[in-house]
Amino acid sequence: MNRTVKGICKKAAGIALASLVAAGAFAQEIAGTPTGKGTPKYVFVFIGDGMSYPQIQSSAYFIGKDAAGIVDEVKNSSNPSDSPVGGLLSFMKFPVAGSAQTYDATSFAPDSASTATSIFTGKKTHSSSINVDISKKIKYRTIAEQLRDQKKWKIGVLSTVNLNHATPAATYAHQASRKSNYPIGLELVASNFDYFAGGALMEPEDKKGDKESIYSLAQKAGYKVCFTQKEASSLKNGDKAIVVSETLADADAMNYENDRADGEWSLRDYVKKGIEVLDNKNGFFMMVEGGKIDWACHANDARSTIADTLALSEAVKEAVDFYNKHPKETLILVTADHETGGLTIGFAGTDYNLFFNTLKAQKISYAKFDSDYVASYKKNKTSFDDVMKDVTELFGLKVPGSAGKDKNGGLVLTEYEYGRIRDAYNKTMSGTKTSGQMEYELYGTYEPLTVTITHVLNNKSGIGFTSYSHTGLPVPVFALGAGQYEFEGYYDNTDIYKKLAALTSVKQD
Ligand SMILES: [Zn+2]
């Protein structure tokens, strides 16, 4: 952590620097001036699933100064430009930022399977297909496979979601459908990649549970399969390993960052271990996915999206550390596959005002609230008044008429907002399926109570979502290191592969 402080912002020495660093207000320092010279033999590709400009910028504002604080500070400052509103994510300090379009062969609002195919193979395909052409017959080889075979690089694949989920699968699998979990698992083992880490495999024994476990097949193929942090800690340079998070959450993914317990490994810890395992003289390629940025956006849970975006930003710092030691041989990209949720910054109900501090009142992800609270409300027929006590505790929202209207937007519900939550509570308690256009727009396919709580909290913060699915927004491509300037401009996601292949001189095969 001290490295972060060194040499930055001398005039801030008088203020509580340590606490600002702890809050992530400063980005990892990049040593020297990145020239972009050199040839990469260590390549990191970070993918925030569903992480376009709105997710990144709202995370920066979230760790920046609160709106009321800014107004006071600017009023009292002789030079308001000294008072930046936003905080900085680690990759916002990268010298290059380009933009990539994300459409696929069949959709302007594509999915992770087709977009990751484009990023890793330079080809467009159908939504939900992984590394096959639109006839679903021709298989495309990925940059990771090419680097493994042509350059003898080691390969690492990390994700906060399942290791056979679409984005990680797109580094090693070739399947007409992303839902072929077991066949994708078989391809994971066959890839002979060196380090996998993150959430558990989906259907490791196939749909009926009647096939040999992917984990046991991996062990037979020479992988160390670790299910505890203790086992993961003992991995050494040169090991071939599959590391599954000791603590699994919804759908056997890693926990959301805002549910993560003290001492539980974060994505950054898995990246750090991965660098230790993969480092070798030929080179390595590491793909790191923040997969739950997308999941939280599907559920319209802004607070959890922001927490996971910040966790990805933290993980990038490990790569920056590595870059600092090998600046002419390291390339780091931070990008996304597509946007999710149609998140935007600005909401009709708060006019020009934004209150990111309001979101800080949320202490739990939508998924954990569903599993740990809503399930028992239904079972015990908990009264609305009692539910509201938990809502106040976990999301900060207070019943109308409560004392203490907060300075920043306020967490006291209006009668209208309270009514929205009560209607959703009634819908949840009824146990009936959502149906019809109105209910879909209100709740999507989510638990009506939970999604309405996050909607109200988002809206009180001045932000909102337009969708429970993906959108057609372009995504940023941040670049640091050898070859960084290739990533300037506005291009197609297939160009990411083409640029990487050219920089690492792999041939398309
Ligand atoms: Zn998605």
TrEMBL record:
Zn(2+) binds at D49, D294, H298, D337, H338, H470. SUPFAM superfamilies: Alkaline phosphatase-like. Binds 1 Mg(2+) ion. Binds 2 Zn(2+) ions. Gene3D superfamilies: 1.10.60.40, Alkaline Phosphatase, subunit A. The active site is at S112 (phosphoserine intermediate). Keywords: Magnesium, Metal-binding, Phosphoprotein, Signal, Zinc. Pfam families: Alk_phosphatase (PF00245). Its cofactor is Mg(2+); Zn(2+). Mg(2+) binds at D49, H165, T167, E289. It comes from the Bacteria. GO terms for molecular function: alkaline phosphatase activity; metal ion binding. Residues 1-27 form the signal peptide. InterPro entries: Alkaline_phosphatase, Alkaline_phosphatase_core_sf. Belongs to the alkaline phosphatase family. This is Alkaline phosphatase.
